Amino acid sequence: MVKKISLALLGATGSIGSSTLEVMREHRDKLSLKLVCAGSNYEKLVKIAEEFDVDLLFLNSIQDSALRAKIRSLIPQRKVFFGEEELLKALASEDYDVCLNAIGASAGLRSSHAVIKRGKRLALANKESLVMAGHILRPMWLKNKVDVIPVDSEHSAIFQSIGAHPTSEIRKLHITASGGAFRTLPLEDFASVTTAQALKHPNWDMGAKVTLDSATMVNKALEIMEAHWLFDLPYEAIEAIIHPSSIIHSMVQFVDGSILAQLSTPDMKLPILYALSWPQRWASSLVQTDLLALPPLEFFPIEAARYPLFYLGVEAAQEGGLLPTAFNAANEVALKQFLDGKIRFDQIYDVVREILDRIENVKDPSLEEVIAINAACRHG
After folding, report:
1. Given this model, what pLDDT does residue 210 score?
2. Which tens digits make up the pLDDT trace of 160-198?
3. What are the chain's domains?
4. Measured at the alpha carbon of residue 252, what is the angle toward residues 248 and 254, in degrees to the nearest 5?
5. Residue 260 falls in which region: left (phi positive, over 0), alpha (psi -120 to 50) or beta
6. Which end of the chain, N or C, is surrounded by fewer C-beta atoms within 10 Å?
Protein backbone atom coordinates (compact mmCIF):
# COMPACT_ATOMS: atom_id res chain seq x y z
CA MET A 1 0.00 0.00 0.00
CA VAL A 2 1.39 3.40 -1.02
CA LYS A 3 1.78 5.86 1.86
CA LYS A 4 -0.53 8.82 1.57
CA ILE A 5 0.88 12.33 1.30
CA SER A 6 0.07 14.11 4.55
CA LEU A 7 -1.05 17.72 4.08
CA ALA A 8 -1.14 20.76 6.35
CA LEU A 9 -3.80 22.98 4.80
CA LEU A 10 -3.66 26.64 5.83
CA GLY A 11 -6.56 28.83 4.75
CA ALA A 12 -8.79 25.77 4.55
CA THR A 13 -12.10 27.66 4.49
CA GLY A 14 -11.23 30.10 1.68
CA SER A 15 -11.61 29.61 -2.06
CA ILE A 16 -8.20 27.95 -2.51
CA GLY A 17 -8.86 25.76 0.51
CA SER A 18 -12.24 24.70 -0.87
CA SER A 19 -10.70 23.80 -4.23
CA THR A 20 -7.98 21.84 -2.44
CA LEU A 21 -10.62 19.80 -0.63
CA GLU A 22 -12.22 18.95 -3.97
CA VAL A 23 -8.85 17.66 -5.16
CA MET A 24 -8.54 15.62 -1.97
CA ARG A 25 -12.00 14.09 -2.43
CA GLU A 26 -10.94 12.82 -5.85
CA HIS A 27 -7.63 11.48 -4.50
CA ARG A 28 -8.46 10.11 -1.07
CA ASP A 29 -6.20 7.16 -1.83
CA LYS A 30 -3.19 9.48 -2.17
CA LEU A 31 -3.81 12.42 0.18
CA SER A 32 -4.67 12.88 3.84
CA LEU A 33 -5.10 15.93 6.06
CA LYS A 34 -2.84 16.29 9.09
CA LEU A 35 -3.96 19.73 10.21
CA VAL A 36 -6.24 22.51 9.02
CA CYS A 37 -6.16 26.22 9.72
CA ALA A 38 -8.61 29.08 9.20
CA GLY A 39 -9.09 32.63 10.39
CA SER A 40 -12.45 32.67 12.15
CA ASN A 41 -14.83 30.43 10.16
CA TYR A 42 -15.00 27.70 12.79
CA GLU A 43 -18.25 26.18 11.55
CA LYS A 44 -16.78 25.36 8.16
CA LEU A 45 -13.51 24.23 9.72
CA VAL A 46 -15.33 21.81 12.03
CA LYS A 47 -17.16 20.30 9.04
CA ILE A 48 -13.86 19.85 7.23
CA ALA A 49 -12.34 18.15 10.28
CA GLU A 50 -15.27 15.77 10.53
CA GLU A 51 -15.27 14.89 6.82
CA PHE A 52 -11.51 14.30 6.59
CA ASP A 53 -10.97 13.05 10.15
CA VAL A 54 -8.51 15.80 11.10
CA ASP A 55 -7.31 15.88 14.70
CA LEU A 56 -5.57 19.28 14.71
CA LEU A 57 -7.54 22.48 14.06
CA PHE A 58 -6.18 26.03 14.22
CA LEU A 59 -8.15 29.27 14.28
CA ASN A 60 -5.91 32.33 14.05
CA SER A 61 -8.40 35.17 14.49
CA ILE A 62 -10.72 34.22 17.36
CA GLN A 63 -9.93 36.03 20.61
CA ASP A 64 -13.15 35.65 22.64
CA SER A 65 -12.63 33.07 25.41
CA ALA A 66 -16.30 32.08 25.57
CA LEU A 67 -16.39 31.40 21.86
CA ARG A 68 -13.18 29.41 22.10
CA ALA A 69 -14.75 27.22 24.79
CA LYS A 70 -17.87 26.75 22.68
CA ILE A 71 -15.84 25.64 19.64
CA ARG A 72 -13.89 23.12 21.71
CA SER A 73 -17.16 21.73 23.07
CA LEU A 74 -18.43 21.11 19.54
CA ILE A 75 -15.65 18.61 18.82
CA PRO A 76 -14.25 17.41 22.15
CA GLN A 77 -12.56 14.46 20.46
CA ARG A 78 -10.30 16.81 18.43
CA LYS A 79 -7.65 19.34 19.40
CA VAL A 80 -8.44 22.99 18.69
CA PHE A 81 -5.80 25.73 19.02
CA PHE A 82 -6.13 29.48 18.76
CA GLY A 83 -3.73 32.18 17.57
CA GLU A 84 -0.89 32.28 15.07
CA GLU A 85 1.76 31.28 17.60
CA GLU A 86 0.10 27.89 18.16
CA LEU A 87 0.01 27.30 14.40
CA LEU A 88 3.69 28.19 14.05
CA LYS A 89 4.57 25.72 16.81
CA ALA A 90 2.67 22.98 14.98
CA LEU A 91 4.33 23.74 11.65
CA ALA A 92 7.69 23.43 13.42
CA SER A 93 6.90 20.13 15.16
CA GLU A 94 4.04 18.12 13.63
CA ASP A 95 4.62 15.35 11.11
CA TYR A 96 3.33 16.37 7.66
CA ASP A 97 4.74 16.01 4.15
CA VAL A 98 3.48 19.15 2.41
CA CYS A 99 2.08 22.45 3.61
CA LEU A 100 -0.30 24.25 1.28
CA ASN A 101 -0.29 27.86 2.45
CA ALA A 102 -3.43 29.61 1.25
CA ILE A 103 -3.67 32.08 4.14
CA GLY A 104 -4.80 35.40 2.72
CA ALA A 105 -2.50 38.35 2.20
CA SER A 106 0.38 39.31 4.51
CA ALA A 107 -0.90 37.07 7.32
CA GLY A 108 0.65 34.08 5.55
CA LEU A 109 4.28 35.19 5.74
CA ARG A 110 5.29 33.72 9.07
CA SER A 111 3.75 30.35 8.20
CA SER A 112 5.76 30.15 4.97
CA HIS A 113 8.88 31.03 6.94
CA ALA A 114 8.13 28.31 9.52
CA VAL A 115 7.58 25.61 6.88
CA ILE A 116 10.77 26.45 4.96
CA LYS A 117 12.77 26.65 8.19
CA ARG A 118 11.41 23.21 9.11
CA GLY A 119 12.55 21.84 5.74
CA LYS A 120 9.12 20.71 4.53
CA ARG A 121 7.76 21.06 1.01
CA LEU A 122 5.73 24.23 0.55
CA ALA A 123 2.87 24.50 -1.93
CA LEU A 124 2.61 28.28 -2.03
CA ALA A 125 -0.66 30.07 -2.72
CA ASN A 126 0.29 33.07 -0.58
CA LYS A 127 2.19 35.33 -2.97
CA GLU A 128 2.67 37.96 -0.25
CA SER A 129 5.23 35.71 1.45
CA LEU A 130 7.64 36.31 -1.43
CA VAL A 131 6.52 39.88 -2.08
CA MET A 132 7.49 40.81 1.47
CA ALA A 133 10.37 38.47 2.22
CA GLY A 134 11.57 36.75 -0.94
CA HIS A 135 15.09 37.99 -0.17
CA ILE A 136 14.91 36.01 3.09
CA LEU A 137 12.91 32.95 2.04
CA ARG A 138 14.68 32.06 -1.21
CA PRO A 139 18.18 31.70 0.34
CA MET A 140 16.59 29.72 3.16
CA TRP A 141 14.83 27.22 0.89
CA LEU A 142 17.97 26.78 -1.19
CA LYS A 143 20.03 26.15 1.94
CA ASN A 144 17.46 23.72 3.41
CA LYS A 145 16.82 22.07 0.01
CA VAL A 146 13.10 22.74 0.25
CA ASP A 147 10.81 22.33 -2.75
CA VAL A 148 8.63 25.43 -3.12
CA ILE A 149 5.88 24.65 -5.64
CA PRO A 150 3.74 27.58 -6.81
CA VAL A 151 -0.04 27.28 -6.61
CA ASP A 152 -0.96 30.57 -8.29
CA SER A 153 -2.15 29.57 -11.76
CA GLU A 154 0.31 31.96 -13.45
CA HIS A 155 3.35 30.69 -11.59
CA SER A 156 2.26 27.08 -11.88
CA ALA A 157 2.10 27.63 -15.64
CA ILE A 158 5.63 29.07 -15.67
CA PHE A 159 6.91 26.27 -13.44
CA GLN A 160 5.43 23.64 -15.77
CA SER A 161 6.68 25.38 -18.92
CA ILE A 162 10.23 25.81 -17.67
CA GLY A 163 10.57 22.15 -16.71
CA ALA A 164 14.24 21.27 -16.39
CA HIS A 165 15.54 24.21 -18.43
CA PRO A 166 18.14 26.37 -16.63
CA THR A 167 17.63 30.07 -16.06
CA SER A 168 20.31 30.84 -18.65
CA GLU A 169 18.01 29.52 -21.40
CA ILE A 170 15.10 31.83 -20.50
CA ARG A 171 14.70 35.17 -22.25
CA LYS A 172 11.43 36.36 -20.73
CA LEU A 173 8.45 35.31 -18.63
CA HIS A 174 5.03 36.49 -19.83
CA ILE A 175 2.48 36.55 -17.01
CA THR A 176 -1.07 36.78 -18.30
CA ALA A 177 -3.84 38.89 -16.75
CA SER A 178 -7.59 38.86 -17.34
CA GLY A 179 -7.77 42.64 -17.08
CA GLY A 180 -10.30 42.33 -14.27
CA ALA A 181 -13.78 43.74 -14.07
CA PHE A 182 -13.04 47.08 -15.74
CA ARG A 183 -10.90 46.24 -18.76
CA THR A 184 -13.30 48.03 -21.11
CA LEU A 185 -14.99 50.48 -18.71
CA PRO A 186 -14.65 54.11 -19.87
CA LEU A 187 -12.07 55.87 -17.71
CA GLU A 188 -14.52 58.63 -16.83
CA ASP A 189 -16.76 56.03 -15.13
CA PHE A 190 -14.12 54.86 -12.62
CA ALA A 191 -15.18 57.46 -10.04
CA SER A 192 -18.66 55.89 -9.84
CA VAL A 193 -17.62 52.22 -9.61
CA THR A 194 -19.59 50.35 -6.92
CA THR A 195 -18.31 47.67 -4.58
CA ALA A 196 -20.57 45.10 -6.23
CA GLN A 197 -19.14 45.92 -9.66
CA ALA A 198 -15.56 45.67 -8.40
CA LEU A 199 -16.19 42.28 -6.78
CA LYS A 200 -17.44 40.67 -9.99
CA HIS A 201 -14.49 38.98 -11.69
CA PRO A 202 -15.12 38.01 -15.35
CA ASN A 203 -13.40 34.60 -15.21
CA TRP A 204 -12.63 33.45 -11.66
CA ASP A 205 -14.58 32.96 -8.44
CA MET A 206 -12.12 34.17 -5.80
CA GLY A 207 -12.12 36.11 -2.54
CA ALA A 208 -12.70 39.85 -2.28
CA LYS A 209 -9.06 40.90 -2.10
CA VAL A 210 -7.92 38.82 -5.07
CA THR A 211 -10.89 40.06 -7.12
CA LEU A 212 -10.21 43.70 -6.29
CA ASP A 213 -6.50 43.26 -6.98
CA SER A 214 -7.46 41.93 -10.39
CA ALA A 215 -9.58 45.00 -11.06
CA THR A 216 -6.68 47.33 -10.22
CA MET A 217 -4.03 44.93 -11.60
CA VAL A 218 -2.15 45.05 -8.29
CA ASN A 219 -2.19 41.25 -8.45
CA LYS A 220 0.06 41.32 -11.52
CA ALA A 221 2.57 43.61 -9.85
CA LEU A 222 2.65 41.20 -6.89
CA GLU A 223 2.96 38.22 -9.25
CA ILE A 224 5.93 39.82 -11.00
CA MET A 225 7.59 40.14 -7.57
CA GLU A 226 6.74 36.51 -6.78
CA ALA A 227 8.10 35.30 -10.13
CA HIS A 228 11.34 37.20 -9.55
CA TRP A 229 12.02 35.14 -6.41
CA LEU A 230 10.58 31.83 -7.56
CA PHE A 231 12.48 31.67 -10.84
CA ASP A 232 15.57 33.78 -10.04
CA LEU A 233 15.13 36.16 -12.97
CA PRO A 234 15.66 39.94 -13.10
CA TYR A 235 12.61 42.18 -13.31
CA GLU A 236 13.54 43.19 -16.86
CA ALA A 237 12.90 39.58 -17.92
CA ILE A 238 9.38 39.44 -16.46
CA GLU A 239 6.36 41.17 -17.99
CA ALA A 240 2.59 41.05 -17.66
CA ILE A 241 0.16 41.12 -20.56
CA ILE A 242 -3.63 41.16 -20.71
CA HIS A 243 -5.25 37.97 -21.98
CA PRO A 244 -9.00 38.39 -21.34
CA SER A 245 -10.10 34.76 -21.64
CA SER A 246 -7.57 33.46 -19.05
CA ILE A 247 -6.97 30.29 -21.07
CA ILE A 248 -3.20 30.70 -21.35
CA HIS A 249 -2.06 31.04 -17.75
CA SER A 250 1.47 32.22 -18.56
CA MET A 251 4.25 31.74 -21.11
CA VAL A 252 8.01 31.25 -21.08
CA GLN A 253 10.06 32.63 -23.96
CA PHE A 254 13.41 30.90 -24.39
CA VAL A 255 16.62 32.32 -25.81
CA ASP A 256 16.10 30.54 -29.14
CA GLY A 257 12.78 32.36 -29.66
CA SER A 258 10.51 29.45 -28.73
CA ILE A 259 7.57 30.16 -26.43
CA LEU A 260 6.05 27.44 -24.24
CA ALA A 261 2.71 27.98 -22.53
CA GLN A 262 0.38 26.12 -20.20
CA LEU A 263 -3.32 26.47 -20.97
CA SER A 264 -6.62 25.13 -19.70
CA THR A 265 -10.11 26.15 -18.72
CA PRO A 266 -9.59 28.62 -15.85
CA ASP A 267 -9.98 26.59 -12.66
CA MET A 268 -7.73 26.69 -9.59
CA LYS A 269 -8.13 22.97 -8.96
CA LEU A 270 -5.64 22.25 -11.74
CA PRO A 271 -2.61 24.15 -10.33
CA ILE A 272 -3.50 22.84 -6.86
CA LEU A 273 -3.54 19.28 -8.14
CA TYR A 274 -0.19 19.78 -9.86
CA ALA A 275 1.40 21.28 -6.74
CA LEU A 276 0.28 18.28 -4.67
CA SER A 277 1.15 15.60 -7.24
CA TRP A 278 4.49 17.05 -8.45
CA PRO A 279 6.75 15.67 -9.83
CA GLN A 280 4.05 13.26 -11.03
CA ARG A 281 0.78 13.95 -12.80
CA TRP A 282 -2.30 12.23 -11.43
CA ALA A 283 -5.26 11.33 -13.60
CA SER A 284 -8.18 13.66 -12.88
CA SER A 285 -11.58 14.61 -14.24
CA LEU A 286 -11.88 17.83 -12.23
CA VAL A 287 -10.82 20.19 -15.01
CA GLN A 288 -11.50 19.45 -18.68
CA THR A 289 -10.75 21.74 -21.63
CA ASP A 290 -12.63 21.56 -24.92
CA LEU A 291 -10.32 23.13 -27.49
CA LEU A 292 -13.14 23.64 -29.99
CA ALA A 293 -15.14 25.62 -27.43
CA LEU A 294 -12.38 28.03 -26.44
CA PRO A 295 -12.78 31.77 -27.09
CA PRO A 296 -10.19 33.64 -29.19
CA LEU A 297 -6.75 33.89 -27.60
CA GLU A 298 -6.21 37.64 -27.61
CA PHE A 299 -3.51 39.77 -25.98
CA PHE A 300 -3.36 43.46 -25.07
CA PRO A 301 -0.90 45.79 -23.32
CA ILE A 302 -1.58 47.07 -19.80
CA GLU A 303 -2.72 50.70 -20.04
CA ALA A 304 -1.04 53.00 -17.53
CA ALA A 305 -4.07 55.28 -17.31
CA ARG A 306 -6.39 52.36 -16.53
CA TYR A 307 -4.06 50.45 -14.19
CA PRO A 308 -1.74 52.98 -12.51
CA LEU A 309 -1.35 50.77 -9.42
CA PHE A 310 0.27 48.07 -11.52
CA TYR A 311 3.06 50.41 -12.61
CA LEU A 312 3.46 51.78 -9.08
CA GLY A 313 3.87 48.20 -7.85
CA VAL A 314 6.49 47.43 -10.48
CA GLU A 315 8.41 50.53 -9.40
CA ALA A 316 8.29 49.34 -5.78
CA ALA A 317 9.52 45.90 -6.88
CA GLN A 318 12.48 47.35 -8.72
CA GLU A 319 13.41 49.52 -5.70
CA GLY A 320 13.21 46.46 -3.43
CA GLY A 321 13.96 46.55 0.27
CA LEU A 322 10.93 47.52 2.33
CA LEU A 323 8.98 49.05 -0.56
CA PRO A 324 7.33 45.83 -1.81
CA THR A 325 6.04 45.19 1.73
CA ALA A 326 4.89 48.79 2.05
CA PHE A 327 3.15 48.63 -1.32
CA ASN A 328 1.33 45.43 -0.38
CA ALA A 329 0.29 46.77 3.04
CA ALA A 330 -0.80 50.13 1.63
CA ASN A 331 -2.91 48.35 -0.96
CA GLU A 332 -4.65 46.29 1.73
CA VAL A 333 -5.35 49.49 3.69
CA ALA A 334 -6.80 51.19 0.61
CA LEU A 335 -8.94 48.19 -0.33
CA LYS A 336 -10.47 48.12 3.15
CA GLN A 337 -11.27 51.81 2.91
CA PHE A 338 -12.95 51.21 -0.45
CA LEU A 339 -14.95 48.24 0.84
CA ASP A 340 -15.99 50.31 3.88
CA GLY A 341 -17.22 53.08 1.60
CA LYS A 342 -14.64 55.61 2.81
CA ILE A 343 -12.99 56.21 -0.58
CA ARG A 344 -13.94 55.83 -4.23
CA PHE A 345 -12.44 53.13 -6.43
CA ASP A 346 -10.36 55.68 -8.31
CA GLN A 347 -8.87 56.92 -5.01
CA ILE A 348 -7.24 53.59 -4.14
CA TYR A 349 -4.12 54.67 -6.03
CA ASP A 350 -3.90 57.95 -4.10
CA VAL A 351 -3.99 56.17 -0.73
CA VAL A 352 -1.27 53.70 -1.75
CA ARG A 353 0.92 56.45 -3.22
CA GLU A 354 0.61 58.58 -0.07
CA ILE A 355 1.68 55.72 2.21
CA LEU A 356 4.61 54.76 -0.02
CA ASP A 357 5.86 58.34 -0.09
CA ARG A 358 6.23 58.26 3.70
CA ILE A 359 8.48 55.17 3.74
CA GLU A 360 12.20 55.43 4.40
CA ASN A 361 13.52 52.41 2.53
CA VAL A 362 15.90 49.78 3.92
CA LYS A 363 17.62 47.77 1.19
CA ASP A 364 18.09 44.41 2.91
CA PRO A 365 15.55 44.29 5.76
CA SER A 366 15.34 41.54 8.35
CA LEU A 367 12.14 39.56 8.87
CA GLU A 368 11.46 41.67 11.96
CA GLU A 369 11.86 44.89 9.96
CA VAL A 370 9.53 43.56 7.26
CA ILE A 371 6.87 42.66 9.82
CA ALA A 372 7.31 46.03 11.55
CA ILE A 373 6.88 48.12 8.38
CA ASN A 374 3.90 45.98 7.40
CA ALA A 375 2.24 46.89 10.71
CA ALA A 376 3.32 50.53 10.55
CA CYS A 377 1.76 51.04 7.12
CA ARG A 378 -1.57 49.74 8.43
CA HIS A 379 -1.68 51.92 11.53
CA GLY A 380 -0.65 55.25 10.08
Report:
1. 84
2. 999 999 999 999 999 999 999 899 999 999 999 999 999
3. 5-150 (3.40.50.720), 158-263+293-319 (no CATH)
4. 145
5. beta
6. N
